[in-house]
Amino acid sequence: MNDYHLYQAKDYIQTPAGLIFAVVADGLEAGRVRCFLRYRCLQGQWQKLDSEPANRYLAEHHPEYLFYSPVLDARLHGVALSAISKHYAPRAGLQDLLNKPATDAVLADFQQLCRLFLQQGIDFAQIGVTGSLLLGLQHSDSDIDLVCYCRETFQQLRRQVQQLIAVGQCRQLNESDWQEAYQRRGCELTLEEYIWHERRKYNKAIINRRKFDLSLLAEARQGGGKRYQKLGVVCLETQVLDDAYAFDYPAELAIDHPEITTVVSFTATYNGQAQIGEQIQVAGQLEQDEQGLKRIVVGSSREAVGEYIKRI
User: Fold this and answer.
1) With 60 as the cut, is the pLDDT of residue 222 above it?
2) Phi, psi angle pair for 144, to nearest 5°
3) What is the maximum span of the chain, computed from C-alpha positions, in angstroms?
4) How many angstroms separate the CA atoms of 210 and 109, rounded?
């Protein structure tokens, strides 16, 4: 595998200065891995960073990692291959953790969940673990974040979650769980709207009082290298024509509009948000590619302030 394909979204990379970045886009651009700073090591302790503190920290201490991506027309963090000291790959991480002694409750819950999936014949060659467990930075309240690299396997996992809930081996999030997830997300929907959309996705549930999430990172689709120009903010109502890629990263919905072909979401909040035939309201950044095709991007920043997708 060459360097271009070595780094994928949901991976993490570390630098010698004690910085850990989450990879946000596959491959390289201008010799850099496109990513975002998530942790820094401060006096021997790892500290998690939100977007604004991460931007400020790099501006003050490591401006070499601030990067404008012409491909995405966005300011990201970018790390050159020569500055990477460690690569955390979700698939390899999952296999390592499956074979480790369960030294803490998070790891024990992760292994129990994996056993339940394995019993149903899920292909674990198509699954990885990301987030704090991959980094070995989990704590007692950590979630379990699984990433799936095959669309068919992902849909099997969703059906399996629904079944595990039905037989009581897992449970749906309760009102308190939903409220906590909502506060973390800080999305533009009301709490009631957020819960309504999330309940029908079956991409998250609770095992032993611990939340787990499933995300999809399927094979790259054509057009991944297109360049986009931002045209401003837009808000409109439309119908969903195709939801085949609704859970992808980025999520994509084909819509019925005379000028705009798709809605694309880079934030997990809106993955699987709408289904074919549904009327939706969408707010986001209007973008146009070099061929003149237009799309609406939801999640132009990690927090997606003012941006959303919701069924009407």
Assistant:
1) no
2) -110, 120
3) 57
4) 8
- Condensed to tens digits (0 to 9), the pLDDT of residues 247-283 reads 998 899 999 999 999 999 988 899 999 999 999 999 9
Q: Say whether 150 sits in a helix, a strand or coil.
A: coil
Q: Are 301 and 284 in contact (CB under 8 A)?
A: no
Interior angle at CA 155, CA 109 and CA 186, nearest 5: 65
Task: List the chain domain ranges.
Answer: 3-88, 90-216, 228-311
Q: Whole-angstrom Cα distance, residue 8 to residue 83? A: 17
Q: Which of 89, 279, 285, 112 is nearest to 209 (CA)?
A: 112
143-193 tens-digit pLDDT: 999 999 999 999 999 999 999 999 999 999 999 999 999 988 778 999 999
- The pairing of strands 294-298 and 260-265 is parallel
Give the span between the Cα atoms of 143 and 146, in whole angstroms.
Answer: 10
Q: What is the Cα–Cα distance from 203 to 207, expressed in whole angstroms?
A: 13
What are the pLDDT digits (tens) for 58-111?
999 999 999 988 887 778 899 999 999 999 999 999 999 999 999 999 999 999
Nearest to 211 by CA among 274, 268, 258: 268
Q: Left if phi > 0, otherwise alpha if psi is -120 to 50, otherwise beta: which for 288? A: beta
Rounded-to-integer distance, Cα 238 and Cα 279, Å: 6
Architecture in CATH for domain 228-311: Beta Barrel (2.40)
> What percent helix, strand, coil does the chain show, rounded to 5?
30, 35, 35
Coil vs helix vs strand at 42: strand
Q: Distance (Å, rounded) from C-alpha 54 to C-alpha 20?
A: 11
Is residue 204 helix, strand or coil?
strand
